[in-house]
Amino acid sequence: MTDLGPLQQVVARTLGRVRLQRALESATAALALWFAIGCGVRLVQRLLFFRNQNEPLWLISFAFVAALFAWLWPVRRDQIAARLDHAHAFHDRVRTALEFSQRQDRSRFMDAAIDDAVARASTLSPQRAAPFRAPRARYLTLIFGLLWVGAGVLPARAVKATLPVPVARTVALSEDELSGFHEELAQLESAAPITPEAEQQRAAYRALLDRIASGELDRAAAIEALLSLEKRLLPDAAHDLSADQTTLAELAKDLAKADEALSATLSQQDPIAAAEALAALAKSLAAKTESERARLKEALARIKRRADASEASLKREAELKRLLKRPDSAKTPDEKRLLQRNKRELERLRRENQQQRERSRELARLERDLAQAAQDLAANELDQAENALERGAEELKRFGQEQGTREQREALAKQLAQLRELLQRQREQDRGKGNANKPAPGSQQERAQRFVMRAAGQDPDAEQAKLLVPKARPKAGKPGGEGDEKEGGDPDQKPGTENNEKGKPALQLGGDGPSAAQIELPGMTQGQTGSEPRASDEHDKRKLRSATDIDSELRDSQVAGKASKGPARSEIILDAADRGFATASYRKVYSDYRTHAEEVLDKEDIPSGYRFYVRRYFQLIRPREERNVP
Amino acid sequence: MSKTSPEASVEALVRDVARVREAVAQRIVGQRDVLDGTLMCLLCGGHALLEGVPGLGKTLLVRTLSQALSLVFSRIQFTPDLMPSDIVGTTVITEGREGQRSFTFQRGPVFANILLADEVNRATPRTQSALLEVMQEHTVTVGTQTYKLDEPYCVLATQNPLEQEGTYPLPEAQLDRFLLKLQVEFPSHDELHAILDRTTGNQDAAVAPVLDQARLLELRHVVREVAVARHVQDYAVRLLEATHPERAQSLPRVSRFVRFGASPRGAQALLLAAKARAVFEGRFSISTDDVRAVAKPALRHRIIMSFEGEAEGVRADALLDDILAAVPIGTR
Description:
Helix content of chain B: 40-55%
Number of helices of chain A: 21
Structural class of chain A: mainly alpha
Radius of gyration of chain B: 21 Å
Distance between the termini of chain A: 80 Å
Oligomer: heterodimer
Order of helices and strands of chain A: HHHHHHHHHHHHHHHHHHEEHHH
Shape of chain B: globular
Strand content of chain A: under 5%
Largest interface: A-B, 25 and 30 residues
Helix content of chain A: 55-70%
Strand order of the largest sheet of chain A: 1-2
Shape of chain A: flat
Largest sheet of chain A: 2 strands, antiparallel
Distance between the termini of chain B: 38 Å
């Protein structure tokens, strides 16, 4: 067996170079990654956490770990051999020889191939197969390394905590509360003797109240100032308490002595000694001078007043603290603005309420007028009714302008409808008597009718016929008659059904007008009136009637289809595709198309590939032979 | 059977091939690749399809090669009215000396060592199909009688790529039987001068035979002994798979323009031609470079273009270039 030693040595050396190169690449890339991460960490620490702390340097051994890992990562020997072959144009001699060396069933030519490769091994150069190159990530490593160093030099950002902007929380007191303070001040002025100091303190107290009212002081300052001023305003505040205390201490000392003596004598059940002790006490008290007793009395009185004043001061302080304990939100300028807005809104509501009451009064007056008009109408006093209705219409118009409520307008509309019915009934009664009561143009009755229409929001001139409905009867016969009020007509037609649906009669105005207009009753839908154009009249005004009708202006006619020469070419082709090449027509179509295609192929510059497939296509779809035609 | 060492066999083969090249070069100018391809086909036992415009010396090359190899040469000019019996032979009635008549098989031109089927695409498919048995089995069957052809046997067919009118493209089954499809390129400027110098005078270079049939058969054996490493064979297989459009890893152009990829005969042709090429260069095993070098001649006629590929005028060589660039040489 041929010794592969020289060949394997070359392969091993090449393998070592490949591993070294790979380790170098990995270490460089890992170093770049490390520098990138470290740079980010340093920047974050310095900019966000205000620390100059650097990561430990031993972590940089991460790059060496990566290099070691890359070195130990397995490398296939056949890849090394292929690299050697490629670098030396060896036509796979090395790789083939290594592969053949692993085989047991080698042929003569395999051995010859191995020998050939081994013989040429001396010409192989590992440096040529695996040249060292500068790592590809070197520039990246350099850039990130510089950034990493720069981030380490960068000083940490100074801590500059952004304190909240001081907001002077002003003491928000209502006018009532401030007036209470002023009353207190007035009571103090009236109760205490006026001294220059007291006057000065009161002036300061008054100024403090003004400052509080103007919102210049915050809560703490206001409380402190108020308490200090109240203390200073108290009477006898400036009095020397030490003297009173000394006097009282002496008195207490005397009383203590007497008490001890009395206790001792009483414990010994010696009344005589007790009497002597009391006598001694009385004597000591009596021994005090008049001035001392007066001073003692005065001191006791001051103490009593001070105690009273202290009690009042505590109460006042408690009240003040209660006031100051209100929530801040209720004392902010926003609250003030909200309060002002609420006040304005309240004022507006008050005004609207007043206007509403006035409208209600006007409505009541209007109802009275309408009721009066109804009564007048009932009494056939049309003049008065007209006046009342005119007045009511004006009221309604004005009320509409003032945007009365919907319910009120509905109530008024209902009353107007009732009035209109009343007028209609009155009209019918008049018609029953003949046409004598027909309202003359310009008469009061006609004006009343115009009023009703105007109140209903209609044009009196255009809708006059609709409003005046003396007789609502179903239309019969031809439309546009002379208004002879003749019922019946065509016996085949139900009354009121011509051009309309059943049960929805079209009404025709009575009277002797040249052409009575057809009107629309309430509840009648659109398209139900007799004047609605028919579908046949929409485009052609001439009437299509039966053939026997001499008035018919149109006649039915039939249009025969145009005779054709047979199926289209596409139909022939489709038919041939569906049922096979069965028709003689397809042959003709095919020949036409084939001829045309050949002409185009001759004339046009078409690639040969296209020409071939066009002809191929026509060969495939050519008609079958005559004998195959079913 | 060669009993010599591989080194000696390969060395002798290289020497013989060099002699053949020199002999042919006395008459043929250039066309080195076509000559090597033809020799590969001869040494591999395959057939070659030569494609080129008229006047490039295809027929002369084949005739010269047959002279240099001392082989029986036969030429058939294919025409649309050529019948199968015209090429394989027919049975005729012959009259003996005593007047008795008998049927005698008259051998056709296929009975030779090198058959030049000139403009093979002009014959009808029926006649073309008559070559199938000859090319694959190296036998001719007429009636119930089967005749074996002499070895070595090689069909060298030519066709003109320009004239498509009145031609019958070779069916895929017959194309697949050609080991290589060689493109005969137009000669260069200097080669044209040399051609004119040689062919416009009175002197006609005589080609002396340098090999005989027995030596040629020995060389065939040597070629087949060339070793193939696994990774090289794997590369050939991957190349062949890359020509198939239905594969998931096929190139987009292959999926779009190819209807059918190369058959397993293509892989055989790849390795055989690569062996011949390796041994021509004095190597005992083939390499991926050999496979890449013979990939186009071995596969270009086995790739069946789709209609879109035909319409777009995509050539198989362009697709093979893409495949060679895309398929990695290393192991998977």
